[in-house]
Every structure is written in structure tokens, then in C-alpha cells.
Amino acid sequence: MRLLGQEVGPDRPFFLIAGTCVIESEDSALETAQAIAEIARRLGIFTVYKSSFDKANRTAHDSFRGPGLQEGLRILQRVREATGLPVLTDVHETAQVQPAAEVADILQVPAFLARQTDLVAAAARSGRAVNVKKAQFMAPEDTLPLVAKARAANPAVPLMLTERGAAFGYNTLVVDMRGLAVMRASGCPVIFDATHSAQRPGGEGTRSGGDRRSVPVLARAAVAAGISGLFMEVHPDPDRALSDGPNSWPLSRLEPLLRSLMALDAAAKAQPYAEDTL
């Protein structure tokens, strides 16, 4: 598939979606995005900056949600202009789709909203590329009707699917790497969210917990399984992040992790394996 002028897919080097979970301030967004852009240039990896103008699904009513639609989109526009990186942001309601599409290069349907037909259809009709995150309660096969919904709204939409872990009991997520192959049957590029897969939803009472130590392990497994893209929330100081700090990856450690993953990706894709030949 062609995405923002780049060829992406299971036979191409993986691309990166990275940034802070939520826009914390204009300065922090610009500083983080500049650092990510410099890493992307050094490594030669196609990269999209990700951050949310609003986190509508926070655990507690008084958790930080972000600057809101208007201010958040203004900051994302500044990021695009200052870094040259394309940007991705979440949309939670159909009314947010068109304003977000005027700024963002990719619209993302959050995992909790992946079954919302009107939202998926509106995003597909927006004229922007769309990334839909597989809900924690969905089986890999459940993404195939989801793709059909988007295609019914706009057959030409550049559409991606993201695996972010499945609910396993309370406050725990697990990843079934077999599901990545199932999701590839949709014909869409499959992305692996290495940081949300390390999350413990609601695991700290009034906020979600996580174990960022498992991020490299999960990322390596997914890259070896043949993903098209890697999604990572990164932060200059994860322990002080205003959202998803426990599962965010330190910005200072992003480049060495990417270098190891890129080497593994090249080795895995040097001898492609087609599941559908069995």
C-alpha cells in the first residue's frame, strides 16, 4: 500500500509511529517531535509523529486529557511545519473527523471505539489515511468485518490495522502473535503497538499501569512475525508523563532499540514466508 508517498507492507521495512500519548504542551510536543525526526533521519526510517489532542478514555474523571481539539490541532500543525514529519491523532466522535482531517495526515480510531460503525465510516470518508486499533475485546478475525465497514464507506481509503493486546482477566493484556498473520489476511498493513501491549489497564486504581521492560521483548517478537509498522509511545521522562507513563518507552533509548529491531526486520524479511501456501 502507498502511504503518504511511501510504500508500506509486509515485504517492506517497517515504518514507525511514535510520540507522546497525549499533547502535554506545545514546547514538549515540539521538542519530542524534533528528537524523533532526527532519529528518523539518522536511521532512514519512515516515521509518523503521534499524539492525541484529547484522551477521552482516561480511567479517572480528573485525569489529564490534553489541550482539546482546537488547540491540539494547532500544536500538531506546528509539529508538521517544524519537523517535516506527518502526524497522526485520535478521533473519538464523528464531529471531530473533519477538523482533524484538515491537519492530521492519518486519523486513528482508538481501540475502545473500533466497533463504532459511524466513526469508522466517517474516518474512511475523510480523505485521510486511517489506522484502526483492534479493540482489546476483539479476536483477530473480528478485524475483517471492520475493514469491510471502512471499505464500504470509501473503497480507496488507505487503511491500516493495529494490534495492541487482548484483555486477559482483569488489568492484564496479552498478545497472540498468531493474530498478526490473521489480520494480514485483510490485505491491510498490520502495525504492532509495542507500548500499549505492555499496559495494565486500570492497574493502579485511578490510572493504568504497565511494564515498559516488556516493550523490547514484544517488539522483537512482532518484528520477527513480519509486521508492516511499529507503534510506540515515547516520552523524555516517562515517570512524569501525564498519560501512559508506565508503559511509555524512554525517548533517550528509542534509537538503540530501533537499530536492533531494524536488523531483525531485515533478517526476517530476507526470506519471506507466506502463511496462505499451507
UniProtKB/TrEMBL annotation:
Keyword ATP-binding set for record: no
Keyword Transferase set for record: yes
Enzyme Commission number: 2.5.1.55
GO molecular function (one): 3-deoxy-8-phosphooctulonate synthase activity
Domain DAHP synthetase I/KDSA intervals: 8-260
Keywords, comma-separated and alphabetical: Cytoplasm, Lipopolysaccharide biosynthesis, Transferase
Enzyme class of the recorded protein, top EC level: transferase
Pathway stated in the Swiss-Prot or TrEMBL entry: Carbohydrate biosynthesis; 3-deoxy-D-manno-octulosonate biosynthesis; 3-deoxy-D-manno-octulosonate from D-ribulose 5-phosphate: step 2/3; Bacterial outer membrane biogenesis; lipopolysaccharide biosynthesis
InterPro entries reported in the protein's UniProt record: Aldolase_TIM (IPR013785), DAHP1/KDSA (IPR006218), KDO8P_synthase (IPR006269)
Principal location listed in the UniProt entry: cytoplasm
Pfam families associated with the record: DAHP_synth_1
Annotated Gene Ontology cellular component terms: cytoplasm
Catalyzed chemical reaction(s): D-arabinose 5-phosphate + phosphoenolpyruvate + H2O = 3-deoxy-alpha-D-manno-2-octulosonate-8-phosphate + phosphate
Example of a GO biological process term: keto-3-deoxy-D-manno-octulosonic acid biosynthetic process
Ranges in a coiled coil: none
Family from the record: Belongs to the KdsA family.
Full protein name: 2-dehydro-3-deoxyphosphooctonate aldolase
Organism, scientific name: Pacificimonas flava
High-level lineage: Bacteria, Pseudomonadati, Pseudomonadota, Alphaproteobacteria, Sphingomonadales
